[in-house]
Write a structure and sequence with these properties.
Blueprint (H helix, E strand, L loop, with lengths): L2 E7 L1 H7 L3 E6 L5 H10 L12 E4 L2 E3 L10 E5 L6
Parallel strand pairs: 1-5
Antiparallel strand pairs: 1-2, 3-4, 3-5
């Protein structure tokens, strides 16, 4: 059974995606890495997302290997520079 995950894009990733969020359908048992791969496979600006971005799963930093569940919220967090 497929699951729907809400994906949030911040800062530079929002600029790439052209939208602040997207609903993504994935197969049951998918991991955060599968979500990132699915987004990159959409092509266009999404292909420029890094294969291993920093992520938060339900507002907590997470690993790309974490398993997703229906209704999860994943935020892609771009690198931050500054001083």
């Amino acid at each position: 059974m497929p699951l729907i995950v809400r994906t949030l894009f911040f800062a530079a990733y929002r600029d790439l995606a052209g939208e602040p969020s997207a609903e993504v359908e994935l197969p049951d048992g998918a991991r955060v890495s599968d979500l990132v791969a699915c987004l990159r496979e959409r092509g266009g600006a999404f292909a420029r997302l890094p294969p291993r971005p920093a992520v938060a799963l339900n507002r907590c930093y997470a690993s790309l290997e974490d398993e997703l569940r229906a209704g999860d919220e994943v935020a892609l967090i771009p690198p931050v520079a500054g001083g």
